[in-house]
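re: ur question from yesterday

yeah so i grabbed the chain u mentioned. its 180 aa long if i counted rite. heres the sequnce exactly as i have it in my notes:
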Amino acid sequence: MNKYPINITATVNEENLQKGVFIFIYRASRIPPHIGVVVNGLLYDITSIGPNIDLPVADFYKTAVKRKTEVLFVELKDSKVSNLNEIITAMVKNHYKVTTDTSCLVPVKEFISKTYVNVSETNFIFELLPLLYENDLITDVWELNLAHKIKNNIFEIIKYTKQDVEDCLAALNRKEKITC
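ran it thru and got these structure tokens back, copy pasting raw so excuse formatting
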């Protein structure tokens, strides 16, 4: 299995997530993980059943702690753009939900392209992160419930394919008891 190494800064706490911009990688060791954005304490993403807009990250954090869900929070540098919440809201509303043509990464990429740097050519989180590092946009990577999978401050995300994403979506659409 191909893996992408991610350098982990520290374990996150709820307070860390109240200010700034983060890409979250939910169920980080699953294939595929789920991706979204946190902006100034509010969470945004698209799922197979619809969007989350302005969800307090405190609620997400508490649920992840309670369920021991593995999450990474990739903190981005401050953007010079002032209306970040409005921009990500528009991106999420535009795509509304995950489909075979629109992964959860799409509104994240559009948000980053509009507020930081063009990342439109990336298709997976393990393609997006190196581009963000190259442009010196990542300040920290925080983990939650992943300490047991981190060695020498490195967590390795398993590289996945478009087929993995499609298979996960098909399973969700069949309402099988599979989590992806």
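noticed a couple things. The chain has one domain: 3-173. also The chain has a mean pLDDT of 94.
anyway ttyl
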